[in-house]
Amino acid sequence: MLHPVICIDGPAASGKSTVARLVAHDLKYVYVDTGAMYRAFTFLTLEAGHDPTSRARMKQLLEKVDFHVEIAAQEISLRDGTRDLGPHTRLPEVNAAVSPVSALPELREYLVNLQRKLRLSAPLVMEGRDIGTVVCSDSPFKYFIDACPIVRAERRRKQGEKDNLVARDKQDSSRSAAPLVRAADAALLDSGKNDARALADLIVQEVRTRLQPGPTVP
User: Fold this and answer.
1) CA angle at residue 135 from 76 to 198, to 5 degrees?
2) Is the pLDDT of residue 216 over 50?
3) Which residues, listed in sequence order, are joined to residue 188 by a DSSP beta bridge?
4) pLDDT exceeds 80 at position 14
5) What does DSSP say about strands 141-146 and 187-190: parallel, antiparallel, or unpaired?
6) In this prediction, what percent of the chain has a pLDDT beyond 90?
């Protein structure tokens, strides 16, 4: 059985992760950060000394890696064999290389299949860049969270990360494999004008209302 999935997409530093975590907590759904999956493979790519733009090298990596996605405490954990990849996903060098690695079609196909299989395990709040357009395009719950570049850049600064967000947006939106675009039926939410709690409340209320069973017809 496929469980419900709430799709939350948006560019880097849009606030989608914060909103998604709040929604998952309120609904008791599993929070799935798909970006962490791409960051995990970026770390493995760099660790192996591979060119992050090489499709051939990515194919080799996918053939030998022992990658697992596990659900625990309403979140996912990422492992290479028994090794926890979580602590490696926010390294500066990973952040710098994740965009070209995540554009590789072979990796996207591999991870999209894994992400879809998670729907068999539990209700999900899944956030990323192609959830509503590719991964779970059949979901009735789609949201695209964005904010102006100035707001997003300030968030990155506070996080201690350095990103050229304009260049990152261009890379993510112009790639051939699952580009970052808002799904036609996704609600657009501005995290620059509304705080994360307010946006999460809006989503939770809508989901609860739409999933509530209607009156029984006698």
Assistant:
1) 65
2) no
3) 144
4) yes
5) parallel
6) 80
Instruction: Report d(CA 156, CA 153) in Å as an integer.
Output: 5
What is the SS3 assignment for 78?
Answer: strand
d(CA 58, CA 202): 40
d(CA 215, CA 218): 9
Q: Are strands 75-80 and 67-72 parallel, antiparallel or unpaired?
A: antiparallel
DSSP 135-166: ITTT-SEEEEEE--HHHHHHHHHHHT----HH
The pLDDT of residue 217 is 45
Is the Cβ–Cβ distance between 1 and 181 less than 8 Å? Answer: no
Q: Directed axis angle between helix 105-117 and helix 34-47, to 10°?
A: 140
Q: Which residues have C-beta within 8 Å of that of residue 171, sequence separation ≥ 6?
A: 99, 100, 103
Which class is 5-208 in CATH? alpha beta
Residue 5 CB-density burial (10 A; 0-12 exposed, 13-18 middle, 19+ buried)? buried
**Domain residue extents for the chain:** 5-208
Q: Is the pTM of this model over 0.70?
A: yes
Degrees, nearest 5: CA angle 123-127-132: 85
**In which band, very low, low, confident or very high, does the pLDDT at 218 lie, cut at 50, 70 and 90?**
very low
Whether the Cβ atoms of residue 146 and residue 10 lie closer than 8 Å to each other: yes
